[in-house]
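agent: user wants the full assembly modeled, not chains individually. Plan: 1) parse entity lines 2) check alphabet per entity 3) run joint structure prediction 4) return tokens. Steps 1-2 passed, two entities, 772 residues total. Proceeding.
--- entities ---
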Amino acid sequence: MRENLHRFFRAARGVGVHVSPAESIDAMRAVSQVGFSDRIILRDALLLTLAKSQDEKLALGDCFDLFFSQPEPRQEQPEGADQGSAQEADQASSSGAANDAGGSPQQELGPLAQMLLSQDRNAIAAALASAAGAASLSDIRYSTQRGIFSSRILDAMGLQRLRDELDQLTATNPALAERLRAALDALRELVRDTVSQGLALYAREEAENLRNEILRNAPLARIERRQVAEMRALIRQIARRLRERYSKPRKRQRRGHLDVRRTLRRNAAWGGVPFLTAWKRKHRDRPRIVALCDVSGSVAQVSDFFLLLIHSLHEVVDDVRSFAFSSHLVEVSEILESKSPEEAMAEIMSKVGFGSSDYGSSLVDFEKEFMSTLTPQTTVIVLGDARSNNLDPRADILRRISERSKRLVWLNPEGRLAWGFGDSEMPRYATFCSVVRQCATAQQLERAVSDIVATYQ
Amino acid sequence: MADQKASTSIEAVESGLAAQGYIASRQIATAVYLSQQIEKPILVEGPAGVGKTELAKAIAAWRGKKMIRLQCYEGLDEAKALYEWKYAKQLLYTQILKDKLGEVLGGAQTLHAALDQLHDFGDVFFSKEFVEPRPLLQALEQPGGCVLLIDEIDKSDAEFESLLLEILSDFQVTIPELGTVSAITPPTVILTSNSERDLGDALKRRCLHLHIGFPEQRLEERIVESRVPGISQTLRRQMVGFIHEIRSLDLKKLPSVSETIDWARVLVLLQATELDTDIVKDTLNVLLKYEADIEAATPQVTTFIAKAARSNVFG
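--- prediction returned ---
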């Protein structure tokens, strides 16, 4: 049973629950207290000791159900085969009787063949489980490994010997060979199911990591429609990571004014002579962000993900004001706060999207109406390709924005090589930006936002 | 055999807590049983008002132990949580003992000899008599054990969590001047959190993690029954059914168990025999704590009452 628990821990790691050795020891101790007989109590005990959050509890609960339901499909499968060939079973009993009378050739058969012929489900299940252990099924990582693991398990169960026997029987006892062959097919199916289940249990995280890794480096602007939902999930994951990293209380700077009250109390032991000083804590700064996003053409998708990311950083960021523009500029903060990401983006698009971009007049719009949102604590982020269709770029407005704010960051989905060619105004704008970065993939997006937040730490 | 013992022990926990008026679900009882058996603290998470703090009180009352409570807040430090030196007493004693010190040191000829003699007294002023024990140290010093409730740990600073690690895993604290103080009897430790911030992995690893959500209808009825005995069965069913309907709405703050109990008390006070639209609308402010929530729920009241009544017939 201890072996089973160890396999369960591996499965738990597979679904993303962090199980350290110390936790597995705790779980072992808990299980030794409650025993295996009551499955609900066992489940509760494992959930209590291993899972560390509500999400993990859900994942682990599913994993538990999947893991401990494993023996069932193994038993159902032969049953199906049974019903399909009821008459064969009849034959089996009669031929078995005949064989007993005629010196019983069955006894010469190997253990696997005997097991298959006797249709002993429990024995088959047990043999399969031990063969799966011998083939170290819990090491399976990718779906392409299914074939090799299946054949390893069958080999471990003694397929080679069974094959030889089948060859012999085809000559001597065709009826028996036929039955054995049907049973072998059923067994193959069973093994395939077991391997699929193993894959579902142990390889989920690995497969997910691989897919996420590919997704993280895919260009956001050219992402396929079916991947959009996955990308949103990934962005949410990134947001959570950033939140966790930056929402922890920052180390306080003990500088500035003397805290007289605390100093006196602390030094009471020395008769009030201030050996140790206590300082008033310094006010903590949190980022205030103003985001200007180009939503024209190819940049729209990147802006979409960027806005989603910025607006899911509530814990880290004090205040976000978002503006979207193509030919003119509107504020979109409220739409993004109140609606789901899909609806919000659709509404923004219907308001300002799909025009040809005009950076000059959009900047004019911003200066006229929203210049007062900028404070010396604000970080301004502009996301766009700076392709203004040869219209006046009004870089002077960008200069004023830069002067009024703490930082001006420009994120450009295009590669550095394309800047300045064609109608790209990037070099002129870049003069006034504190930072200019390329931002085409989820990974670059994460780095860019992470840097922005980090400057406030 | 051990298995049999476990399930009966878990039932014993359930009935023990029930005797104190705390109706525990199976998970809660299992957690309490396990924390006792493998001596680990329980970290209880869940929305406000589902009875996280009550659990600690019920355990203390059931086992007949003292409950020591440490309420966490931002800026809580070891001087308030663990121990502090009694500075005033130290000062007073040095003043009183001044003459005595003169006598003792009077025999010494040189400054060096006086210093040596002074060393012989040891750290008189940094001994146990001058330590003011705060909740954590108090909990360790209870001879018969106790229930230590560390309430709303998520409100404290991250540094404070690290301070707790030693006490949570080994039931001991180290005071630099005195050495290590171990628990006489390991206390039962309950930590509660409203998930305002994510707690550190190191802290979580040392605890059993228990999540208490809103209870199922049946369980909540039992809770109301034990807390508000004066309420009739029909009304109890109706109001719990109504609250479950309310929880399906998107509200800022969903009514939790404590609100259910308050509402039951209010209904009993108003001598209601069954729910009707008027009485619900008049008392909705007991359940919902935001103006916007009340506005959102008011149009649904009649439908919810009907639904609750219908489920009543079938349930």
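agent: reporting back. The first strand of chain A starts at residue 288 and ends at 294. Residues 71-207 of chain A form one domain.
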